[in-house]
Specification:
alpha+beta; globular
Length: 253
């Protein structure tokens, strides 16, 4: 049975969750979202150590087999916080950063990522970790838990509109996407789309390096692992990836 441990409790595991097999799960371009620096860069991450987790197997507790990130923020208690942001992942990180800077007490937690090394997938572990994160949110006293979910199979059809993709259901009425299905089975409810959840801009040279490919023409370009095409403009020497996610609310009962 896998377990979540916070980096506050296990600071020795910090190097492991940002390197090696765990870090390599994600494409290089996913590591260049500028908004993410408000969470991951020093000194910001040190303020979130109670909601940054290493995933361990108690049989070998000194080896991280995954990681999970979440961010506390204010929801529902401010006029502009009655709905979750269309900006999704980026938006909630900006909200959390502002709340922390202003000293506002958080009442909600947003999951940002759950990543397991490949050999630990497909065994129901993600559901265990998701449930553990919700239990942790309760312990910390948060009233709400959300997640801007990245549908894991969407990259197989990047030109399909996200709304059409999310509406697909299996015969038993669950989402067709496997990661969305995990969230719903864990008691989650789809709230809304986040059409601009993660925005990753860069020059053509930067994107060529990040994606390990050339961009010979302007237009909508399919990139390995991306949920939607990358917008490429050779004339303006930039490319921008605007990833849609799906907001899911998890019951705290």
């Amino acid at each position: 049975m896998l377990e979540l441990v916070t980096l506050r409790a296990r600071p020795d595991l910090r190097p492991q969750i940002f390197s090696g097999t765990i870090q390599a799960v994600w494409p290089e371009y996913m590591q260049h979202d500028p908004t993410a620096m408000l969470y991951f860069a020093e000194p910001h991450l040190d303020f979130y150590l109670d909601t940054v987790f290493a995933i361990i197997d108690p049989v070998a507790p000194d080896i991280a087999v995954g990681r999970a990130f979440a961010v506390p923020f204010v929801f529902g208690d401010l006029p502009d916080r009655m709905e979750l942001p269309d900006a999704g992942w980026d938006g909630v990180i900006r909200w959390a950063h502002r709340d922390r800077t202003l000293g506002r007490p958080a009442n909600a937690l947003s999951a940002l990522e759950i990543t397991l090394i490949p050999e630990r997938r497909g065994q129901g572990a993600s559901r265990i970790i998701l449930d553990a994160m919700r239990d942790h949110a309760r312990i910390l006293g948060y009233r709400h838990m959300f997640a801007p979910v990245r549908p894991t199979a969407k990259h197989l059809e990047p030109f399909t509109p996200i709304g059409d993709y999310v509406r697909r259901r299996t015969a038993d009425g669950l989402p067709a996407d496997p990661w969305l299905r995990v969230h719903i089975r864990a008691g989650g409810e789809i709230v809304k789309l986040a059409p601009a959840s993660m925005v990753i801009p860069g020059s053509i040279a930067e994107w060529s390096r990040w994606a390990s490919m050339s961009f010979p023409a302007s237009g909508q370009v399919e990139v390995l692992g991306a949920l939607v095409p990358v917008h490429v403009s050779l004339e303006q020497d930039h490319a921008v990836y605007v990833e849609p996610n799906v907001w899911v609310r998890h019951s705290m009962n």
